[in-house]
């Protein structure tokens, strides 16, 4: 099969979360996945990608529940908020607040004049911190109102993290970590580092670590003193994550692979994944047992932190939804679509509308599915020819403004096999 996913120049990570809580892969983004956040209940995650989309996933079923279209450019940061809400932000400088089941943001936070690179939620859940390439950090009251603007960095701010007492830490390309006390009339503490910084993480016992472009992770105390350092990669650190149980710290690199460390001793435990595949986003499950990682191959993989094994479809897990079509070339092509689309009318809609009865159906006409506004303005009837054209040139060109991941099928035989499969499986 010669199915290819088109990637833009800015692309670096695509997201794919699999089909069971037993472990799998999340697939759905049309570009690299830059950010991952897991909700407090451990059942839902949000991801952001260079395809300008955010996706909300069920970690219990592996289904993409919502594809969120709002941002004009890549989504570099996401966060899980109280009461089941989510936030997304990116290169357009805007922060969108989302509620479950809503296809448009319930509010938009504007004010940054540069890309937003990171988000963090305060321990009490009342404030959202944002780091921007406009050299500022902003504290947004989630109940509404104007943000507090924190200025002190001398360049791009790449990361933010809260300590348990509400102290905010920020790190940037100016090779500095700044600690902003919760008492805003107190002078911030600035810690100058040897190299520009790209990531921050606070552990369960309130230790603070910064990742640098030299592949090292450094611990910084509240007085701005560097307490120690450890090399976690030969290339720039791209992401850091700490488990809530205090057991692990994970560090990823542009050179590929994930270094898993004991959070107490900082002793490397093992390396996850292969070198050469950049990993750009990390998030531990709420119980600290598994780690989600988004890589440059546009896949978010799940790892067992205790064993170091990549989790996949377990024998005791749900059956392969495509198992009944074993041996069908068209079914193998459709496998890339099954996370977002159903074939049976009883299964309803997922992140994309059901494909049951697609041939002869006008675009954007499935009841109860929230289409993007661009789709509703198009005059297309789905036929074998138009579906084939969609995958020949890609959704971005054929249906601009679509929520669909950017996927093309370059081999005419594969496209023909997919059409035959859909004709057989989607008719009444």
From TrEMBL:
State one Pfam family annotation.
Cytochrom_C
InterPro entries recorded for this chain?
A: Cyt_c-like_dom (IPR009056), Cyt_c-like_dom_sf (IPR036909), Cyt_c_1A/1B (IPR002327), WD40/YVTN_repeat-like_dom_sf (IPR015943), WD40_repeat_dom_sf (IPR036322), WD40_rpt (IPR001680)
Indicate the segments forming the Cytochrome c domain, all copies.
325-426
**Keyword annotations:** Electron transport, Heme, Iron, Metal-binding, Signal, Transport, WD repeat
Q: Which CDD domains match?
A: WD40 (cd00200)
Repeat region (WD), residues = 26-67, 68-99, 109-150, 150-180, 272-313
Q: Does this entry carry the keyword Transport? A: yes
Signal peptide residues are 1-21
Q: Which PANTHER family match?
A: TRANSCRIPTION INITIATION FACTOR TFIID (PTHR19879), TRANSCRIPTION INITIATION FACTOR TFIID SUBUNIT 5 (PTHR19879:SF9)
Protein name as annotated: C-type cytochrome
High-level lineage: Bacteria, Pseudomonadati, Pseudomonadota, Alphaproteobacteria, Hyphomicrobiales
């Amino acid at each position: 099969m010669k199915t290819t996913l088109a990637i833009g120049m800015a692309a670096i990570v695509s997201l794919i979360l699999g089909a069971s809580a037993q472990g799998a892969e999340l697939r759905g983004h049309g570009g690299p996945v830059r950010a991952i956040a897991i909700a407090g209940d451990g059942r839902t995650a949000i991801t952001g990608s260079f395809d300008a989309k955010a996706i909300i996933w069920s970690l219990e079923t592996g289904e993409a529940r919502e594809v969120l279209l709002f941002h004009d450019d890549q989504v570099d940061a996401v966060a899980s908020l109280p009461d089941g809400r989510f936030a997304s932000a990116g290169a357009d400088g805007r922060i969108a607040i989302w509620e479950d089941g809503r296809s448009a943001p319930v509010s938009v936070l504007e004010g940054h004049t540069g890309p937003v690179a990171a988000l963090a939620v305060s321990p009490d859940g009342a404030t959202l911190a944002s780091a921007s390439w406009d050299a500022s950090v902003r504290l947004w009251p989630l109940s509404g109102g104007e943000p507090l603007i924190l200025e002190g960095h001398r360049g791009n701010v790449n990361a933010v993290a809260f300590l348990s007492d509400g102290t905010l830490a920020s790190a940037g390309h100016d090779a500095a970590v700044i600690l902003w006390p919760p008492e805003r009339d107190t002078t911030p503490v600035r810690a100058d580092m040897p190299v520009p910084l790209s990531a921050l993480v606070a552990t369960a016992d309130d230790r603070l670590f910064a990742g640098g472009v030299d592949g090292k992770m450094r611990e910084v105390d509240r007085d701005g003193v560097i307490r120690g350092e450890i090399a976690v990669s030969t290339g720039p650190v791209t992401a850091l994550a700490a488990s809530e149980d205090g057991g692990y710290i994970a560090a990823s690199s542009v050179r590929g692979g994930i270094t898993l460390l004991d959070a107490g001793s900082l002793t490397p435990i093992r390396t996850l994944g292969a070198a050469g595949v950049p990993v750009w986003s990390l998030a531990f499950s709420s119980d600290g047992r598994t780690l989600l990682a988004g890589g440059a191959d546009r896949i978010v993989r799940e790892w067992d932190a205790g064993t170091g094994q990549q989790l996949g479809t377990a024998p005791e897990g749900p059956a392969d939804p495509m198992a009944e079509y074993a041996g069908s070339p068209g079914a193998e092509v459709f496998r890339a679509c099954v996370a977002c689309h159903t074939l049976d009318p009883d299964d309803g809609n997922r992140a994309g509308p059901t494909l049951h009865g697609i041939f002869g159906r006008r675009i954007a006409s499935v009841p109860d599915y929230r289409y993007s506004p661009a789709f509703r303005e198009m005059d297309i009837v789905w036929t074998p020819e138009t579906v084939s054209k969609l995958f020949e040139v890609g959704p971005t060109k054929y249906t601009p403004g679509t929520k669909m991941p950017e996927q093309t099928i370059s081999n005419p035989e594969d496209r023909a096999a997919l059409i035959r499969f859909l004709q057989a499986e989607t008719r009444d």
